[in-house]
């Protein structure tokens, strides 16, 4: 038995040319085109079965959607700075906190009105999953707000 490694002749591999993707389109242009491809046939299909008044409103809403999405497609996302997105991040964080707190209050109201026979421990045991979701939503919002609050003044000046 021969345990010596055998060398094999290596052939030089040819360089393979891969197809290049077509000129990439902006994400908002893709959104506009995709939404239009879904909306226009749907509107065309349902307009004949609607009353004339409702059909006019649907067509008007469709044309407004065309105009709005065209305006959106003209926005260059690369030119939007981090500083300009700050108010949106703060609003989303506040929305998370507010919605989480509101849903916990709604859950407590539901439990106290429809299940008054359950003790607090039994309520938590039975509905722990909802508590966890709503608390986590609020905590996520607090993290978003904390991130915005902890940005340094230097960093804020850099984006202005």
Describe this structure in words.
With 160 residues, the chain is mainly α. It folds into two domains: 27-78, no CATH class; 80-159. Helices cover 67% and strands 0% of the residues. Helix 1 packs antiparallel against helix 2 (52-73) and helix 3 packs antiparallel against helix 5. The protein is extended, with a radius of gyration of 29 Å.
Mean pLDDT: 87
- Residues in β-strands, percent: under 5%
Our Rg estimate from Cα atoms comes to: 29 Å
Task: Give the total of domains.
Answer: 2
Order of helices and strands: HHHHHH
Q: Which of globular, elongated, flat, extended, rod-shaped describes the shape?
A: extended
| Distance between the ends | 76 Å
List low-confidence stretches: none
Structural class: mainly alpha
Helix content: 55-70%
Summarize the structure.
The chain has 160 residues and is mostly helical. Helix content is 67%, strand content 0%. It has two domains: 27-78, no CATH class; 80-159.
Label this structure with key terms.
mainly alpha, 0% strand
Topology:
Elements: H1 27-46, H2 52-73, H3 86-114, H4 120-126, H5 128-149, H6 153-159
